[in-house]
Every structure is written in structure tokens, then in C-alpha cells.
Amino acid sequence: MKEIEVKVLNIDFDMVKKKLGKLGAKKIKQENQQNYFFSLKEENGYVRIRVIEDLINNRKKITLCIKKIFKLQNVRQNIEHEFEVSDFNECLLFLKELGFKDYKREDKYRESYILEDVLIEFDTWDKSVFPYPYIEIEAPNIEALERITGLLEIPKENITSKGLLEIKRDLGIL
User: Fold this and answer.
1) Cβ neighbours for 110, distance < 8 A, ≥ 6 positions apart
2) Domain residue extents for the chain
3) For each successive 10 residues of the chain (174 residues), what is the average pLDDT?
4) Considering the entire predicted model, what is its pTM?
5) Quick one: fold of 4-171?
């Protein structure tokens, strides 16, 4: 699946959530995540195992994902393939057999909303991973992304196409 993505930094979560409510957005996720990242050797992207504690439906699930990242103007375009797996340890052994050796675990809390065909996600990582909460917006195209950021009155200077590692480098916390 292709997606256009940006992050919104230095923004008041409550203010944006109120605007989403007034615009009729639907809350679709509230979850705790354990993310296990494996680097792709010759690609800009990663493989990830994610253990999800779904707080809305009171269930757990595990997903395996590959994400390749491309820069386009002021947004990122990702090619992402994700599917559910039934056994974390078998998935981990599978990846090790494919040659993936080192991984890092990073945990976060996420709330997600859908407005029209755009996904708005509020991410709060463990403080040791990233100390500042931010919003991630995923859209099918640049026009939809610009429409939603306009409706939410998000200042352009708060929007970045940078990934979390780039943001951490810029802030000197990597």
C-alpha cells in the first residue's frame, strides 16, 4: 500500500482532537504498542514486528510489516506491506533465519482517528525513545493531506516530512 505521510510537531493534542470532533472524525484506535525494528541493509526503511494491545476492543494482536520510505517534496511516500502473525517468537526466529540480526524495541501509546480518507494518529513514545508527543497524518494523496491540515488549522511550520530518526538528530537527542 502507498501512503503520503507527515508528522506534526509542537501541537496541542487537545485542540486538534476538539477540531476532529467538530468535523465528525471517528476514533478508530487506542492502543499500546511494542515495536521491534530491524534495519533494511540497502533500503531506506525497515521491517517491524508490532505487538498491539487494543484498548478499545480489549484484544492483542501481532503484525509484521515492511516499510520502504521515499521523499516527495514536503511529504514522505511509504510503500508498506503489513499482515497479522500468530506467534511473536516464531516471527522473530523467521526474521533471524532471513539474516536479520539486530533489532531495537521501542514502545508507544497511539490514538487514531479517521476523517474522510485521512488517518490522524496521536503518538506518545516512551520518554527514553522520544520525549515529545506528535501527530502523524497519513493520506492517499497530497491534496487530501493539504485539505485535512487546512481544516485542522495546522501551521505549515509545524509539519515535517522527516522521520523520527531525522527529527531526533535535528533536536540533538540521538
Assistant:
1) 29, 30, 31, 33, 121, 122, 123, 124
2) 4-171
3) 89 97 98 95 87 97 93 80 97 95 94 97 96 96 95 96 91 88
4) 0.91
5) Hypothetical Protein Pfu-838710-001 (2.40.320)
